[in-house]
Design a protein that fits this description.
Elements lengths: L1 E4 L1 E6 L12 H10 L2 E6 L10 H14 L3 E7 L17 E6 L7 E2 L2 H10 L4 E4 L3 H13 L3 E3 L5 H12 L4 E5 L1 H5 L5 H4 L12 H9 L6 E2 L8 H4 L14 H10 L5 H16 L8 E11 L18 E11 L2 E5 L2 E2 L5
Parallel strand pairs: 2-3, 3-4, 4-5, 5-6, 5-7, 7-8, 8-9, 9-10
Antiparallel strand pairs: 1-11, 11-12, 12-13, 13-14
Helix pairs in contact: 5-8
The structure holds zinc ion (ZN).
The site of zinc ion (ZN) has 5 residues, from loops.
């Protein structure tokens, strides 16, 4: 048994408010604890989106009422909140900007809006940006000397561009997801709509480049984006897969296979997210892991409401055994043990 610090997932969609048939703050944070995460950072593209004082107040209230682990909140940049959103910088972990061909209500098609947000937001700007949009975001961050965090980097050209920008001293950080590290477009046939994500699964060369450049990656983030099976198998499947309960076993498997050191795993799932978003330490918090247990990931048991995983059938090495949050045991041997669970 080894002890890790409480892990941090810097990119999740817990679906409260508005889409709680897929997930909610209670089920999503129980999934987090079951996966070894004691803090998650929740994205703003809910219904309604988190874009102003009222929606941030409402989500904060719901976090206090029903979350079982610590939850940091992003606010979203929209065309209408350029002037006002900066006032929320003390309460939000960062500003999320959706550039290019992204999904949801916060899509920013206009260059002037993106520039205005970049100039005015006083903290970390996290971007969903693919291809040329990523290159533009890196250029703008450099121009305005803003800390930029690139979410779910998935392509060879993108991770190589980030490496070059970092080598030039740009204030850039980035994350990659387990689904882009462990799956490729070759899995898409078998997974069908369950493998539909944005950014799409890459080629074997993309996946190889993510592993080869893992030394310039700051965080592994799940981009936990649950949808029901009915939605995924419907006529218009939405993009996204759950990931909170599979990220740690997959990354421990990478350690087992010699692709990653345990120290580096802790950097990617704890130190990196803390550094990128300036998060406080969680005293008395740790995760006990059995590094050697070998098992096959299944669809059950899962705490996420959606009840499935694209990694079902994969053999992994390593399992979270116990999670202690501020001195209290909150997860033990497959069971989340919360007084109010
Ligand atoms: Zn996302």
């Amino acid at each position: 048994m080894i002890t890790l610090p409480g892990l941090i997932d810097a990119h999740v969609h817990l679906r409260t408010p508005g889409q709680t048939h897929k997930e909610d703050l209670s089920s999503g944070t129980r999934a987090a604890l079951a996966g070894g995460f004691t803090r998650v950072l929740d994205m703003p593209n809910t219904t309604p989106p988190t874009v102003d004082q009222a929606t941030l107040d409402d989500k904060s209230r719901q976090v206090r009422a029903s979350a079982h682990c610590d939850v940091g909140l992003f606010v979203g940049g929209s065309a209408r909140n350029v002037g006002a959103v900066g006032q929320l910088s003390g309460r939000a972990v960062g500003l999320k900007l959706y550039l290019g061909e992204t999904y949801g209500p916060l899509f920013l098609p206009r260059m002037d809006t993106v520039i205005a947000h970049m100039r005015r937001w006083p903290g970390v700007v996290a971007v969903h940006a693919d291809g040329w949009h990523l290159a533009a975001a890196i250029g703008l961050a450099r121009l305005f000397d803003r800390p930029l965090h690139c979410c779910h980097v998935a392509r060879k050209a993108e991770i190589e561009l980030i490496r070059q920008a970092k080598e030039l001293g740009a204030r850039i950080t980035c994350e990659v997801t387990p689904h882009h590290l462990f799956l490729t477009d070759a899995d898409s046939g078998a997974l069908g709509p369950l493998g539909y994500v944005k950014p799409a699964l890459g080629t074997a060369a993309d996946r190889g480049a993510l592993w080869a450049n893992l030394d310039v990656v700051d965080c592994i983030a799940s981009d936990h984006a649950p949808h029901t099976l009915e939605e995924k198998r419907g006529d218009f499947p939405p993009p996204g897969v759950p990931g909170l309960e599979t990220t740690l076993p997959l990354m421990l498997t990478a350690v087992h296979d010699g692709r990653l050191s345990l120290d580096r795993l802790v950097e990617l799932l704890h130190d990196g997210p803390r550094r990128v978003y300036g998060l406080p330490e969680q005293p008395g918090t740790h995760v006990q892991v059995d590094q050697h247990e070998r098992y096959v990931l299944g669809d059950d048991p899962l705490y996420t409401k959606c009840g499935w995983t694209p990694f079902a059938g994969m053999t992994v090495h390593g399992r979270s055994r116990r999670v202690i949050l501020r001195g209290k045991r909150v997860y033990a041997d497959g069971q989340v043990c919360m007084s109010n669970a």
